[in-house]
Specification:
Distance between the termini: 19 Å
CATH architecture: Sandwich
Number of helices: 4
Radius of gyration: 16 Å
Strand content: 35-45%
């Protein structure tokens, strides 16, 4: 069974062994290898949202529930992350700054689909956008090597791909917009 307090303790122990994501990824991989246990431990997702499970200066653990067909714009974290999928799928587009660009403009550099039972590390300097490409909720444990909400970072305008200051509230509203859209259309939002 997935026990949240035990999971956080194991992440903290892993972080003491190595300040990188190396050992934390192993903890996340073990957890999401049993999606049914994570669903039982965290509860069945009912709506798009970000739930803070643990927050400290050196470690943040989030339960991220992506709405059906929801997209989050290109952004960075300024810290490493480990993404563990326990239900659904995340499609990530990886971006890089255009060489010589003075305004932080981006270009696509690659993509990767993360599915159920995947636990994938993202380096400190990664810039990515995330889409839930399926018609139901996607559940993921996101573990960050720092205080996710306190570190200044950037996101990029969806049309111009120019860099701007990351706005936490604007991005949290995207989750509420996803909930409103699917409530209005009557589309299913469950994870199964």
């Amino acid at each position: 069974m997935f026990e949240l307090d035990q999971f956080i303790a194991e992440c903290r122990t892993a972080l003491k062994q190595d300040a990188s994501h190396k050992f934390v990824r192993e903890v996340v991989a073990r957890a999401v290898s049993n999606p049914a246990a994570v669903l039982k431990g965290l509860g069945e997702p009912r709506r798009a949202e970000i739930q803070t499970l643990h927050r400290s200066s050196d470690l943040t653990v989030l339960n991220v529930i992506w709405g059906p067909h929801m997209t989050l714009l290109p952004h960075n974290h300024q810290m490493w992350a480990v993404i563990g999928i326990y239900s659904g799928r995340e499609d990530n587009i990886f971006w890089r700054r255009v060489p010589g660009s003075q305004d932080g403009k981006l270009e696509a550099a690659g993509a990767r689909a993360f599915g159920e039972k995947d636990a994938e590390p993202l380096g400190r300097d990664i810039i990515h956008s995330v889409t839930n490409p399926i018609a139901r909720l996607t559940g993921a444990i996101h573990v960050y090597g720092g205080d996710f909400f306190a570190v200044p970072r950037s996101d990029w305008d969806p049309e111009s791909l120019l860099e701007q200051r990351y706005d936490v509230e604007r991005n949290l509203r995207r989750f509420e917009e996803s909930n409103a859209l699917y409530a209005k259309t009557g589309q299913p939002t469950g994870t199964r």
